[in-house]
Design goal:
This protein is of the alpha/beta class. The protein has a single domain, classed as Ribonuclease H-like superfamily/Ribonuclease H (Nucleotidyltransferase, domain 5). Helices cover about 40% and strands about 15% of the residues. The protein is built from 6 helices and 5 strands; from the N terminus they run E-E-H-E-H-H-E-E-H-H-H. Helix 1 crosses helix 4.
C-alpha cells in the first residue's frame, strides 16, 4: 500500500520524470499535490501499469489533485545541459507552475538540486512508495507518450508509436537506415559502436 506523503502536516508535492533513457523526444516531468484524503486502489509506479490504466489514472489525478503541472524539456536543451540537469530542470519548472507552492518536495530517484529554499527528500523507487510521486510518474509518462505519438505521424519509420523514443532494435535500425530527425538527442550515443 503506497503512503500518501512523507510529512502528513505539510503541503507536499511529489515529482518524477519520464523519458530520461530515450534517444529522441523531450524529457518530461510532472509535479503533483494531492489532497489529504486521496487514495486509489491501483495507483502505483507508471512502469507497472498498462497504458489503459495510466490513462484512467491521468483523468482521476487531474480531477482530484489540489494542483499539478507538467513540463517538457526539449532535445536542444538536453544536448546543452545533459540529461540529468534537463530532468531536474523539468521538475523545477513543473513545481514553479503549480498554483500552490509546496512546503516540501518528494522526488523520485536520488538526484535533485535545491528548488528555492523548499526542503526536499529524494526517494529511490519513490513512485512505488508514495502516492504523489506515483501520480507525478503517471502524468509525466502519459504526457510524454502523447507527445511521441503525435511525432510518430510525421516520422513513422522510427516506430515512436511503439517505442516512444527508447533505444529499441527497431528504432536503432531506422536511425541506421534514415539518419536522425530534429527530435533526436545529438549528445546521446544513438547507435552502438
Amino acid at each position: 500500500m503506497l503512503k500518501l506523503k512523507i510529512h502528513s502536516h505539510l503541503l507536499e508535492c511529489g515529482t518524477d520524470e519520464a523519458g530520461r533513457g530515450c534517444l529522441a523526444g523531450p524529457v518530461t516531468a510532472a509535479a503533483v499535490i494531492l489532497p489529504n484524503d486521496f487514495h486509489h486502489p491501483f495507483l502505483t509506479d507508471s512502469k507497472l501499469l498498462s497504458e489503459k490504466k495510466r490513462l484512467i489514472l491521468k483523468e482521476i489525478i487531474e480531477k482530484e489533485a489540489i494542483c499539478y503541472a507538467v513540463t517538457h524539456v526539449m532535445m536542444e536543451e538536453i544536448d546543452k545541459i545533459n540529461i540529468l540537469n534537463a530532468s531536474i530542470l523539468a521538475m523545477h519548472r513543473s513545481i514553479e507552475k503549480l498554483t500552490q507552492q509546496p512546503e516540501f518536495i518528494a522526488i523520485d530517484g536520488n538526484r535533485f538540486k535545491p528548488y528555492k529554499k523548499t526542503p526536499y527528500e529524494c526517494v529511490v523507487k519513490g513512485d512505488g512508495k508514495y502516492l504523489h510521486i506515483a501520480a507525478a510518474s503517471i502524468l509525466a509518462k502519459t504526457y510524454r507518450d502523447e507527445y511521441m505519438t503525435n511525432l510518430h505521424r510525421d516520422f513513422p519509420a522510427y516506430k515512436w508509436l511503439k517505442n516512444k523514443g527508447y533505444p529499441t532494435l527497431e528504432h536503432r535500425a531506422a536511425i541506421r537506415e534514415y539518419g536522425i530527425t530534429p527530435f533526436h538527442r545529438k549528445s546521446f550515443r544513438l547507435l552502438p559502436e
